[in-house]
Amino acid sequence: MLYSVEHTTKYKYHEMVSLCHNIAALTPRNTNNQTCKAFNIIISPLPEILEEHIDFFGNRLFYFVIEQEHESLTVTVKSQVEKLNNQDVPVSYPSQSWENVKEMLVASTGEFMEEKQFSNPTKITGATPEIQMYAEQSFTPGRPLFETVHDLIKRIYKDFVFTPGFTTISTPLSVVMKERKGVCQDFAHLAISCMHSMGLPARYISGYLETLAPVGQEKLTGVDASHAWLSVFIPGMGWVDFDPTNNQLANEQYITIGWGRDYFDVVPLKGIIMSSNPHELTVSVDVKRIEEQ
Amino acid sequence: MPYQPVIDSLLQQYIPALNSYNELFAAGNTIRPDWQIFFNSLRQLGYKELQNRNIDIQRLLKENGVAYNIYNDPSGQNRPWELDPVPQLITSGEWETISAGLIQRAELFNLLLEDIYGPQLLIKKGILPQELIYLHPGFIRPCVNIKLPLQRYLPLYAADMARGSDGRLWVISDRTQAPSGSGYALENRFAMSSVLPELFSNLNIKRLSPYFDALQQTLTNMAPNFPGDPRIVILTPGPENETYFEHSYLAAYLGLTLVQGNDLMVKDNKVWLKTIEGLEKIDVILRRLDDSYCDPLELKSDSLLGVPGLVQAIRKGNVAIANPLGSSIVENAGLVPFLPALAKHFFGNELIMPSIATWWCGQPKEMNYVIANLKTLVVRKIFRNNAGTHSAIDGASLSTKKAEELVKEIKAHPHLYAGQEKINFSSTPSWLNGKIQAGRSLFRSFLVNHNNTYMAMPGGLTRTTTGKNNFIISNQLGGISKDTWVVSANAEEEKPINLVLNTETLKQEVYKRSLPSHTAENLYWVGRYTERVINNARLQRTVMQRILQSKKSFVNYSMTTENILLQTVTKCTYTFPGFMEEDDEVARIKMFEKPWMELTDILYNEKRMGSLSHNLSLLKNSVYSVRNFWSVDTWRVLRQMEEEWTVAKKSLNSDHFRMINTIDSLNTSMFAFLGMNRESVRREQGWNILDLGRKLEQSLFIITLLKSVFQQKQPVQVEHDLMESVMNASQSLITYRYTYRDHLQLPLALELLMLDTNYPKSLAYLVKKIKRYVSLLPNEGKEMPLSKKQRNMEEADSLLKLADLAKLTRCDLHSNEYTSLNNFLDKLYNLLADTSMQISKTYFKHSQVQKQLFTANLI
Predict the structure, then answer these.
(1) ipTM
(2) Residue A169 in contact with partner chain B when CB distance is under 8 A
(3) Of A57, A110, A274, the CB nearest to B850
(4) Do B130 and A110 touch (CB under 8 A)?
(5) Pairing with B426, which of A26, B143, B389, B787 sits 20 to 30 Å away (CA)?
(6) Smallest Cα–Cα separation from A31: which of A78, A86, A77?
(7) Letter string b/e over residues B62-83, b meaning 16 or more CB atoms within 10 A of that residue's CB
């Protein structure tokens, strides 16, 4: 399936700003189940500096600077991503227990560097005793890792209420845990935190999810949004993506941009301006299927 | 060396601690030879004289500003720098070993950093555990794979060392982030050689300057555009930082510009310094700011001390940083147990200078050992906490409960902890409370990468403590410091270092370089606050005197004079509502009857905006922010002034005459300060800006004063008294009498204070000066059209030139108000205030704060 994604972010300031530094993590990565066929970034006003580099986690980043006076900034990325049809829910999964996976990783010296780097909490994903206790209910002794994670995200889906606007990017997990409310990013962080509290690796995925219009209706433009979920290393399967917000494994409709330890490693767009006034932000995302040619 | 028994009473109090190495005596109670020579010189000097010289040393340090404590920190963290007149001695033989050992360590850390920020083979091969690096906050992921020339991973290195009871030196900790202390070592040497030159005379002591010469050369060679003419800055977190003195001291000594993050900006992938003449490209940054704070875009996003885009400029190779971002990863107690293996791996050798025994809790066996032996160990986090907190815990000091908590914490985060053996620091002769006693010492030495190897400063910074429980000396530069002498047996045999510094171009550069905007801004405010303090002090004194006198007189209209004057104080000091209380007339009248509470408050209440104390502290902050502009004498005056003011403030309710005296002596000091400004601020541009600030403030004061006092026509006697007060407040009475030889009349008073172009306190004179300074500002051409500020000043100048005195002193028949005078003064005020704003906008631009843009909108 070929998808097109159009993602526009617009900042409107309330005064002239003469310098603005930004980093965009908006380029879909190539993974086992997707290929980025085309990518285009359009920035207005035209940036004086536009550089690309690969970050520590292998994500493609754009660094750009606006060095002229401007009152608004618009960043549009258009990409075409081919999703490979290889993400069916597995009929069987490895029986290796979560304890076993943990021990294997701990005992390793240098072989699982890539995986192990996602084992430890960051400032965001540090577990409180409540989170640890919540996690323990899924991590029963001897349980296969895949099944354990599956159970964990099912519980998060059941126990937490999706509540847009309740949290911001700086709301700590303890509040999410206490109030049992949040959005995809909070649920992904929470699940990651649970994994870490049990000593297991998990990474944060930034991306998009195709939404479908109700049957018989035309899909409106701009209604999609950025999405976030987590990925867990399951020996024998590799990294497997779980979405606690929708209680499912990531399927063809999930388009990955990139990953890190938490949101702050893969902020879609971040910037710094010199200004004392507030700014307004509008975002629109469209994920569309392109007819097979 | 002939052995001479010491029969001195001098050493009677020297009682070394048990189980500690004795720096002074060798076996058999014989004094070690170098110490023998030292104490011979000391004995010749005499005990009394040593006491005097010790006082001189402390005074010298204070006057040089080493002890200048701007924040009056009540917790005493910002304590004055103390220097022991007795140095620490190290024989040149031992120094060879120390130096070789430290060079080896520096080279090891350099290679280690290259691997950590490059291929990470050490982890891949299993030589280093991944967690030791990945869990350390000093591992800065955006810096991985930024390629640097090999020797640039660790330009600067420092190590803290102490002697065990066997006399062997052990490394306690390694400093790779932004090693501090070299400037203090230099200042110590400077103080010692100027106050106690006799003690140097019989010993061959290695000089420190080669280290600084090498540092200068290394920084120059690091420049991406080498061998161009690099512009090098020292990046400081600012005057709040505990070692800010050192930052500015090194900047002055090395001839570098001291900057804060907001003095710099990144544009076109290059780093620029904002100066009043525009942007200047920066090639090398000597960093005294912790790495994670350096770039809010890619690193700590809420840091206000960094430069957005700096990491990208580094990535593009357009700027070099010493030490590079990320170097603090090897300030890592957990690494210590792995160092011997790393030395074998890199060099095939043992470590020459070992660390004290350390167990990293990230390994199960080691963690169990640490927990089992908690009582005999020091436990520390593998990374250093932010300044101000202790990162090491003495296991023996913990209660059972605290120990249990610590064990739980270690078990929860084993990778973040390490246990270290305790060491009995050596005993060394120290001058304490007028006696030579035994202090325990810790020694820091400094290395700089030079000519593809390292060079150790021959000497360093020794700190001593007399506390019993001294297994942990904090990270702060606490304790009493000692100059450290490396003593060679023969006369100076060291080769002079080969320096290739082109003094010609250097000299030109100093003149060519323009003022950083931030410096200019601070100088401008030094000027403004200086005048604000002086003018308000005079006015407050005049009014207080007047109130005191009127108590004795029974002239009924004097109430009006005083009320007008009290209101003038409120207006000139901007301490509204004060005596201007409008809503509550009863309250206002009460204040007129009992004005002293308010008068005292606006003198001493530092928290109140506009009070004299408040303005003084603003002045102090501005002065301190450009501390390398001021001479030693200036510091002495400022310190004295501060001390007197603090004393006066404490005796709050003293009688009113005392308050007036305090103001008098404050003003005396302020004038001494002013007098020294001219010679301290040598660079013309700096002086112009400072004086511009003064003249603007002075003009605005005179205008406000006249406006407030001569709002309305008053009875003859009142008007006379008011004129007299204005003349007193502006110190113009004598000039008036001398010029006019007549009693006080309004037209003449106004002529003197407003229109006399030869009188330095008159508006006409001040405006003429301001006009000239404005035209001298960078990029202020003489071509048309003139800038807004130039036009403002032209207008103000002609307003004064064309002023019609007769018209100005005429009062409105109906309202009895001096309407045209007030309109005239308003116009002038607005022109001057706008000029000040224009100057800020054009040259300072520091009013805007950095703001994060972020995205949200998630499903």
Answers:
(1) 0.94
(2) yes
(3) A274
(4) yes
(5) B389
(6) A86
(7) bbbbbbbbbeeeeeeebeebbb
Q: Are B121 and B115 in contact (CB under 8 A)?
A: yes
Minimum CA–CA partner of A197 in chain B:
B412
Q: What is the mean predicted confidence (pLDDT) over B233-237? A: 95
Cα–Cα dist B133/B340, whole Å: 17
> Can you tell me which residue has the tokens 């059209």?
B785
Mean pLDDT of A13-27: 93
The dihedral formed by the CA atoms of A160, A163, A164 and A169, expressed in degrees to the nearest 10: -50
CATH 2.60.40.2250: which residues of chain A?
Answer: 2-84+267-291
Segments of chain A assigned to CATH 3.10.620.30: 98-263
What is residue B820's three-state secondary structure? helix
CB contacts < 8 A (A, B): 129
Could you tell me if B407 and B374 are in contact, meaning their C-beta atoms sit under 8 angstroms apart?
Answer: yes
CB of A7 within 8 Å of a chain B CB? The answer is no
Q: What is the arithmetic mean of pLDDT over B297-326? A: 95
Across the range B16-29, mean pLDDT stands at: 86
The confidence score (pLDDT) of residue B803 equals 94
B74 close to B322: Cβ distance less than 8 angstroms: no
**pLDDT tens, B92-116?**
999 999 999 999 999 999 999 999 9
CATH number of A98-263: 3.10.620.30
Report pTM: 0.88
Q: Which residue has the higher pLDDT, B66 or B290?
A: B290
Q: What is the pLDDT of residue B79?
A: 61
> Which residue do the tokens 């084992």 mark?
A119
Q: Does A272 touch chain B (CB under 8 A)?
A: yes
Q: Residues B169, B102: contact at Cβ < 8 Å? A: no
Using CB atoms, pick whichever of B125, B144, B297 lies closest to residue A23.
Answer: B297
Choose the mutation target among B116, B307, B517, B854 for the interface with A, i.e. most A CBs under 10 Å.
B854
- What percentage of chain B exceeds 90 in pLDDT? 62
Residues 793-852 of B with CB under 8 A from A: 847-852
> pLDDT band for position B501 (50/70/90)?
very low
Q: Is A92 on the interface with B (CB under 8 A)?
A: no
At B560, is the pLDDT very low, low, confident or very high (cuts 50, 70, 90)?
A: confident
Q: Do A110 and B309 touch (CB under 8 A)?
A: no
> Is B74 touching A (CB cutoff 8 A)?
no
| HSE value, Cβ hemisphere, 13 Å, CA-based, for A215 | 0
Region A2-84+267-291: CATH code: 2.60.40.2250
Distance from the B315 Cα atom to the nearest Cα atom in chain A, whole angstroms? 10
In this complex, do A117 and B129 lie within 8 Å of one another by their Cβ atoms?
no
Position B233 pLDDT exceeds 80:
yes
Q: Is A113 on the interface with B (CB under 8 A)?
A: yes
| pLDDT value of position B496 | 43
With an 8 Å Cβ cutoff, is A225 touching chain B?
yes
Interface-testing mutation among A186, A212, A272, with chain B (most B C-beta atoms within 10 A): A272
Q: Are B670 and B504 in contact (CB under 8 A)?
A: no
CB contact under 8 A, A22 and B309: no
Instruction: For chain A, say whether B776 makes contact (Cβ under 8 Å).
Output: no
Q: What is the pLDDT of residues B429-475, one digit of tens each?
A: 999 888 888 888 889 999 999 999 999 999 999 988 876 555 555 44
A-chain residues near B298 (CB < 8 A): 23
Listed as own residue / partner, the contacts of B244-249 with beta carbons closer than 8 Å and 24 or more positions apart are: B244/B627, B245/B65, B245/B66, B245/B68, B245/B81, B245/B183, B245/B627, B246/B180, B246/B181, B246/B182, B246/B183, B246/B184, B246/B288, B247/B183, B247/B288, B248/B627, B248/B628, B249/B183, B249/B186, B249/B187, B249/B628
Handedness of CA A155, A158, A162, A163 (dihedral sign): negative
